Amino acid sequence: MTSVFCGIDWATDHHDIALLDETGTLLAKLRIDDNPEGLTQLLDLLARHGDNPDNPIPVAIETSHGLLVACLRATGRPIYVINPLTAARYRDRYALSRKKSDHLDAKVLAHILRTDPAEHRSLPAD
Asked: Does any domain span residue 36?
């Protein structure tokens, strides 16, 4: 059973990551660049929080394309692509302000996996 959930707010040149536990407590946050070094930082962060091939930490992100998604798919982990409009609706549950925040968006994506996993499907393996 998964006890850590990862949300990634994707951008063109960087990504914000949030890891939450099963109670919604923020375990870690990180901003990485969109390059191999950034991916290594992300994989190291996941490993420090219990990620392993038998129990990979699932990831929620708002896109199904790009270097980051391709590399995460290669690790065999479940990746959930969340529609940006869906994520925006969830954001209202966690913030009173309508102000955009990359870190908050990453947390919201992790919360979506934590609270409503049955409502979303992971990308198929290919």
From this structure: yes
pLDDT tens readout for residues 14-69? 999 999 999 999 999 999 999 999 999 999 999 999 999 889 999 999 988 888 89
Q: Report d(CA 39, CA 53) in Å as an integer.
A: 17
**Position 125 in a domain:** no
How many distinct structural domains can be found in the chain?
1
- Model's pTM, two decimal places? 0.90
In a domain, 124, yes or no: no
Structural domain contains residue 126: no
